[in-house]
Amino acid sequence: MAVKRMGQQTIILPNKPAILAGAAWVGPKEGKGPLGSLFDHVTEDESYGQQSFELAERQMVLDAARAAIRKAGVREGDIRFLLGGDLLNQIISASFAARELALPFLGLYGACSTMCEALCLGSMLLDGEYADHVLCTASSHFCTAERQYRYPLEYGNQRTPTAQWTVTGAGAAVLSLSPGKTPMARITHACVGRVVDLGVTDANNMGAAMAPAAADTLLALFEDTHTAPRDYDLIVTGDLGRVGRNLLLELMNSQGTPLIEDRCLDCGLLIYSPEQDCHAGGSGCGCSAVVLNACLLPQLQEGKLGRILFMSTGALMSPTSSLQGESIPGVAHAVVLESPKAERNTRHDF
Amino acid sequence: MNRKHIRTDPAAYEQMTRQASPPSRMVQGVFRAFWVGGVVCIIGQLAAETGVQLMKMTPADGYCFAAIILVLLTAILTGAGVFDRIGQYAGAGAFVPITGFANAMVSPALEFRREGMVLGLGAKLFTIAGPVLVYGIGASVLVGLVYAIIFS
After folding, report:
1. What is the pLDDT of residues A258-313, one digit of tens each?
2. CA distance B17 to B50
């Protein structure tokens, strides 16, 4: 009997696995954005001293992972599982970084939902007492994603207003069952999303493709945990961008569970300022990964946020499926994060 | 179906998406394409006139010379990482003149050089321009055949 289940899609994590530390490595454009000062490291240029952009992305994963391990105060050998993924074919950034780290590795592909997918699985591994420490990573790079999904970098095509800009960045978080020090946050619930597709075919409008999946996961989580939007200080989505966020708000209204607009943020809208010409906002695995590690976790640690719902959203198409005229399936995974200072847990202690 | 799942049909959602997605700015786009495209044409015309008047070319050679100059300038600007910004700004204005073709050849060459001269650069060189060549040349062959049948 699966006793740690709540409803159809949500699991409860009674041991409340802790996020011990997180690290975020970003590229220069992200460094110039509104969150620039929060990141652990801003690279001087996109190539990060490497021969190719693929190598640069890999190096960013590696450096972020090592920094997170260092900040967590654990040794590399203490990590029992490395869960990571990225956007590239055969997830080479994660697996080649794993080659250097030499840790037991599970590669993940959830498109831009990867960070949350890793957190869901990592927290399950911890709560099931299969490990004491787990490392979760996710990364993306504008220059590597662009050549795989769209055009060569120097090709002068015009971006549509709904297009999003792939974040150059890598985020890593060390999860632990037995934190030696005060953790940054605790994961209390995880909700694994269904793949939802309402027929959007425009690969330049991924926010619209992902919004239904985001709404679906939110509805499932609220029902499973008997909570409502007002129970969360923030509901943070991964990379819906301006179009997707508006559609999510509208969809939730139409389903009779309206979100509180000013408590509903999107990492893709936080990471760039409007002057940076990124149209509908940021996207990519790295988007939610770096915003979580650099911006949200510290606020949870300080107690500025008590309980948040963090949900990464992914568009699961490939260039091949798009060319063959298939619509874009979306997926969204969510975790509930609690501040270590918010031991209030009065009526929410399910 | 249990009730918590999202209930929206694709047709209604398509309507919502259309309303939520900002349209391209028509007037601004047309204006930018007009002036940038115009400037490109002026440069081409200047090159042609220079060829004909100063370098004693025939008019046909002059226009060929203009095309060479525009392709060369675009290739240099693409290599310098400037042309993609011009393209983003001006759209068709930067593309419809022969400049677009040059950019479509040079940008994959730069991009895929890292995968080697043969299977990288060689294989990917025509990824963008290829379709234009295939159907452009194909169409001209067809038209040529029709022309030959009717007028011979």
Report:
1. 999 999 999 999 999 999 989 999 999 999 999 999 999 999 999 999 999 999 99
2. 52
A271 and A150 housed in the same domain: no
Q: How far is CA A300 from CA A10, A69, A307, B88, B150, in A?
A: 22, 19, 8, 40, 79
Contact at 8 Å (CB) between A208 and B17?
yes
Q: Is the ipTM of this complex over 0.85?
A: yes
What pLDDT is attached to residue B103?
Answer: 95
B73 in contact with chain A, both atoms CB, cutoff 8 A:
no
The answer to whether residue A227 sits within a structural domain is yes
Q: Could you tell me if A280 and A143 lie in one domain?
A: no
Q: Largest Cα–Cα distance in chain A? A: 57
Question: Does one domain contain both A153 and A193?
Answer: no
Its pTM surpasses 0.80: yes
Q: Which residues of B touch A216 (CB under 8 A)?
A: 5-6
Q: Indicate whether A150 and A244 sit together in one domain.
A: no
- CB-based contact A111:A213 (threshold 8 Å): no
- Say if residue B3's pLDDT is above 70: no
Based on the domain organization, do A159 and A212 belong to the same domain? no
- Low-confidence stretches of chain A (pLDDT < 50) are 345-350
Interface of chain A toward chain B, CB-CB under 8 angstroms:
8, 51-52, 147, 151-162, 194, 196, 198-200, 205, 208, 212, 215-216, 219-220, 222-224, 243, 246-247, 250-251, 254-255
Q: B22–A162: do the CB atoms touch at under 8 Å?
A: yes
What is the average pLDDT score of chain B?
A: 92
Record: contact B6-A219, CB cut-off 8 A = yes
Domain of residue A248 covers 185-338
Tokens (6 digits) for B90: 């001006």
Q: How many domains does chain A have?
A: 2
